[in-house]
Write a structure and sequence with these properties.
With 293 residues, the chain is an alpha/beta fold. The chain contains 10 helices and 12 strands. It has 2 domains: 232 residues, Alpha/Beta hydrolase fold, catalytic domain (Rossmann fold, 3-Layer(aba) Sandwich), CATH 3.40.50.1820; 56 residues.
């Protein structure tokens, strides 16, 4: 598909890149939004293959524009420029709270292009960040949020699981590095899933404060929100699934749905973390919801 390369600068002077795909033909959007901003998960980026490459075309066919974008956590390790100075980011170095600047910048860009009905759609960590952004920095320009498979970042839940001791050992390693004055030391983490993080990032994301636990933040989102989770997540390991990040999460989100008029929850049957063999089912579910927003 033909797209435009676009860029933004956040309020803290970080440059981010993405692509803007406009609707095919002149059909008015058949959805409840005119543009959807697609936010990748941990180590992802706007140009890689995956579910959003497929769903970008599907959205455009519905007359909806698409912004598929990077945030400062793109790729395992990346380098961006802040005031002309190179700074390390990527999954290993990002502090999740800083996503507020990235999300705000892309919404502002969409608004500057004339779009009034703006939707957010995040996958995995991108879903966590979308929920977090709308909970702690409510943006009245955003019409709705789709959060596909947001893992639970819960220190207490992790400790209670079978893998709890192994997770605790990693957390103690990270805390030890911080006490030694080495917060930016890299460590290979295996739980909740294998990734490379600095000690500071590991504690910020997974530590006792539970800053990014979606179960705390979903109730604070005041626009329509759809949460989807694959039926194999928390049950089947491998295929990108994080057992520790999803065990029991579906039931807890379902309980929230019973209390929140603006929350819709849907399990994608038999789906892994990327909905690999259930892309059509997921698209039908999400597009049907978007038409009702």
């Amino acid at each position: 598909m033909l797209v435009d390369l676009v860029k933004v600068e956040t309020r803290d002077r970080v440059r981010l890149d993405g692509i803007l795909g406009k609707p095919t033909g002149s059909t008015k959007s058949q959805l409840g939004v005119d543009i959807v901003i697609l936010h990748h998960g941990v180590t992802g980026n706007f140009y890689g293959p995956g579910m959003f490459a497929e769903y970008s075309d599907s959205l455009r066919e519905q007359g909806c524009a698409v912004l598929r974008v990077n945030n400062r956590g793109h790729d395992p390790i990346s380098q961006v420029r802040e005031e002309e100075e190179p700074v390390r980011y990527g999954a290993a170095y990002e502090i999740v709270d800083d996503c507020r600047h990235d999300w705000e910048a892309w919404v502002t860009f969409a608004e500057s292009m004339g779009y009034k009905r703006i939707g957010l759609w995040g996958h995995s960590l991108g879903a966590v960040k979308s929920i977090y952004y709308m909970a702690v920095q409510p943006d009245t320009r955003v019409t709705c949020v789709v959060a596909s498979s947001p893992p639970r970042f819960s220190y207490s839940a992790y400790l209670a699981m079978e893998e709890g001791n192994a997770f605790k050992q990693q957390e103690e390693l990270a805390q030890g590095l911080i006490r030694e004055g080495k917060p930016d030391a890299l460590m290979e983490a295996d739980y909740p899933r294998r990734n490379l993080f600095t000690a500071k990032v590991f504690v910020d994301k997974y530590g006792p404060e539970e800053r990014y636990n979606v179960l705390k933040h979903i109730p604070k989102v005041n626009v329509p929100i759809l949460v989807t989770i694959g039926g194999a997540e928390g049950i089947v390991t491998g295929q990108g699934n994080s057992k520790i990040g999803f065990t029991g999460l579906a039931n807890e989100v379902q309980q929230l749905e019973e209390k929140m008029a603006n929350l819709t929850f849907q399990i994608i049957p038999d789906a892994d973390h990327s909905y690999t063999h259930q892309r059509k089912y997921a698209w039908d579910t999400i597009s049907s919801w978007l038409k009702k927003v």
